[in-house]
Structures are given as C-alpha cells and as structure tokens.
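Discrete fold record:
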Amino acid sequence: MTCKIERLAAGESEVILRVCGRVQAGHMRMIEELIGGVSGPVALDLTEVTLVDRDAVTLLSMTERNGVELRNCPAFLREWIASEQQRMAAETPHRASDAITACEESLTSGCRYQLKKGEHAMATITTKDGTQIYYKDWGKGQPIVFSHGWPLTGDDWDAQMLFFGQQGYRVVAHDRRGHGRSSQTWDGNEMDTYADDLSELFEKLELKNAIMVGHSTGGGEVARYLGRHGAKRVAKAVLISAVPPLMLKTEKNPTGAPLSVFDGLRAALAANRPQFYKDITLPFYGYNRPGAKISEGIREHWWLQGMMGGMKAHYDCIKAFSETDFTEDLKKIDIPVLVMHGEDDQIVPIVAAGPLSAKLLKNATLKVYPGFPHGMPTTNADQINADLLAFIKGTAKAVA
C-alpha cells in the first residue's frame, strides 16, 4: 500500500493528519510542509502506517517541532524510532540529545503503550526492505550467534544463552523475520532472505570472529549465510539437528521425506495452528516415547514462542526448511563445523541430515547422540552445552 495522507480534523483547537501505508522520506517532507502551514496544534495519527523508510531523520525532526504529537504509533514504528535514537546517541550524543528527548516525549504522549522514564523499547534492526528484526545481545567477549528453529524465537536458546554468557562469551540471538517479536512479514520468508537478514545483523552489531550455532531451520540459515556471504566474520559453526543438506525426497536424495509429509504440516497449520503447535511438541522433544519424562512447561514455552509469530511466515517457512537444497552451501564452507544430531530425531530424521552434511563439509566434526530427540538443546542441555564449549575451545572429539 502506498502512502496516503488525510486531514481528519481542522479547527481552532487542533489539526489531525492521518498517515497510512508505506511512508518514505519524500512523504515525510510533504508532511513537514503541511505542518509548516498550520499555526495551531498538530497531531499525526499513525494507526495505519505499515512500513517506514529507513531514513528516520525527517521523522525525528518532526518530533522536535512544538505541538507535533504522534498518536497510535504502531509497535514496529515505535521500536524503529527507539533504535534510531540509540544510533544517533552513539554517533553524536550531544547533538542528538535534544532530538531524543523530543522524540521520547512524543512517543510517550501519543503511543498506546506509555514508555516510562528510563525505559527503552526492544532492540531491533531495520533491514533493507524495512523489516524489523528483534535481537538479544548479552555479555562481552567472543560472540556466539544463535539461529533458532521453526516456528520458534531466540528464546529457544535460553539454556545456551545463559550458560555461555556466564562462561564469558557475548551471546546474540535474533527472532527470524515473521517469528517472535520481529515483523510479521508476508514476503521474504525463504532462506536467501533469512541469510541476508542475518548478514545485516552481523554488520549492524559489528560481529567478528563469531561462532555461529543453528538448530533445525536455523542450521539451514547458518549454512546459507556461509554459502552466500562467506566466513570473513565467522571462526567456527555448529549445526544442531539441522535441516541440511535437504529434507525433501528426490531422485538424488532418496532418504528424504516425501512432499506429502510437508503438505501435511501445512494443512495442519492452516486448519488449527494452536492445536497443531501443541501436538507437535510431543515428537519434537521425544515426549511420545515410552517412559519419557514430560515437561509441560517446556511444551508450553514452545507453544508460546510459536504463537508469537505470523501464520503466513510460518506457513512459508515449511517450504523453506524442507525444499531448500544446501548441498552447494555446505561444499563452500571451509571453517571448522561441528555437526550434532540425535539418533531419535523425529522432526529432522538423521538418515537424511547430520551425517550427510558432515560428508559434504570440508572440515567437519560429527557427533551423534543415541536416543536424543530433535529438541536436544533443551532436553539435554548439559550435554549439548558441554560439547559446544569443547568445540569452541578446540577440544571436541567426534562420536558416531
């Protein structure tokens, strides 16, 4: 939807301009001209704004104007403005301070959520297509960058983020586009764009000498990132229960799963996503096996993460993780890679996954875990964390 600017109310007391659709820098200048011709109080109603150009300077300058109030500011826009405030403050703290103060006052007075003094919006970056990517960035030291599985969020790495943060590493986890707290995208829900988003995160956070760790779909994201953007910022990588090289059964990949399996996933998601997300936690964590000790808390955490994301993005992602062929990506990777896979993985069966990826990689260490499920970073966190730490420190040994 292109930008549309409407004058909703005019009178002695107030003028309200409603801004709709995608707003670019040129539209902001038009709005500035309209505001400049008004002598009384002005408010911008941003309820129907769907996307904003990356150039936030004009928007920030508008908030400096006396009497300009931002009303019904969408969450993504509020977060985007907060991110821009942080960038400006870091680059030119003295020059930006007045603009930041004005913007915060405008936000707290006009948005549905009232930011309190000293409170900050979530950390996000804005990609080239305007998508907001949420991330967590904790601690200091060598960075470890975690890529989560479908349809989850960066929170699925809780057990690893805490452990490695306490070990003196800088730990970073993002919510993939369409997932969690990131924008619920309609387009771009495929591996090339996932990898490009991750590349932008690397650049924005100035990550270097990083360890990349990907679980399930996140493992595909790691492989595609390295195949597409190279390893200049990466020292090592880890693929855990990961989808590469290819999940789909083809003539060249006879051990893969037939397309009907993934059609079934899409049908279940479309029919009743909440119930589907409850049901799938059983095989995901191996809770459907005899004698399994089921944690309802872990199941509910999975469900909550899934329901935070966008249905269209999750639907599209099934094709991305099942039909993307990572063979050529894996062949390009020459940094050390640890491949970890559970023998009882019911989501990404090992027969078409971990060992095949290890054979394609130039410098792989394969570790196979008898009886471990797909969600082993959570169910078997102590073992996984210990093996990850050994690999990062250079003491890992292959176990098959």
Q: What stands out?
A: The chain is about 45% helix and 20% strand. The mean pLDDT is 86. The radius of gyration is 23 Å. The chain has two domains: 4-110, 125-393.
